[in-house]
Design a protein that fits this description.
about 200 residues; alpha+beta; seven-stranded antiparallel sheet
């Protein structure tokens, strides 16, 4: 893995019609431009082993053989220097991957290193509890953006609706169907869920 300067990452993203959403400042959530409504989300499995398999499956189906960019939604350092027990636990897990303690910004995970990507995203997804723990993952083909969320869901945004539907079908075939109801009142009912109701 290597650190990618923010401006270099943004230039790469712009070539794929991906940009920071001004409405999400200061967290700079990445979106397709023009913004699309081709989004889905999946609830995290409760079982720890099933959760790891779920995350690995999503990453594999999204970009097998791809390089991946990963970035914290809130930017900043991957390994926080604070005393919060969850952040400390995340920091220990990230350090175990070989991540430098001062690493910040976007990182590039080489093709064939998907287990490393899972090892980076997993502790943040499992123990993260606020927006700065959310991780956006983008395969180098740039057709989709995955994001782990502290609300215990995996978001996926797509450039086109056929790409969204194809990914939903592959996830369902792997045993990970879309949820039928919202996790909590902080979620807005998405258009794909409205169609099913």
């Amino acid at each position: 893995m290597r650190s990618v300067p923010w401006q270099e990452f943004l230039a790469w993203a712009r070539e794929r019609d991906i940009a920071a959403d001004d409405r999400s400042a200061p967290c700079d959530c990445l979106v397709f431009t023009p913004e699309t409504d081709h989004r889905r989300f999946w609830d995290y499995p409760e079982d720890a082993g099933a959760f790891e398999d779920f995350l690995r499956t999503a990453i594999t189906l999204a970009g097998f053989g791809s390089e991946w960019f990963a970035r914290l939604r809130g930017g900043g350092r991957w390994i926080a220097n604070d005393s919060d027990p969850s952040s400390a636990r995340i920091g220990r897990a990230l350090a175990a991957t070989g991540m430098a303690r001062d690493l910040e910004g976007a990182i590039l995970v080489p093709a064939g290193e998907q287990e490393l990507l899972v090892s980076i995203a997993l502790p943040l997804a499992r123990w993260g509890w606020f927006v700065e723990h959310d991780v956006q993952l983008i395969p180098d083909h740039g057709k989709m953006i995955l994001m782990t969320d502290h609300h215990r869901v995996l978001h996926a945004s797509f450039r086109t609706e056929p790409e969204a539907e194809a990914f939903v079908d592959r996830m369902a075939a792997a045993g990970h169907a879309l949820p039928e109801e919202l996790q909590d009142e902080t979620f807005k009912v998405p258009s794909w869920m409205k169609k099913d109701q």
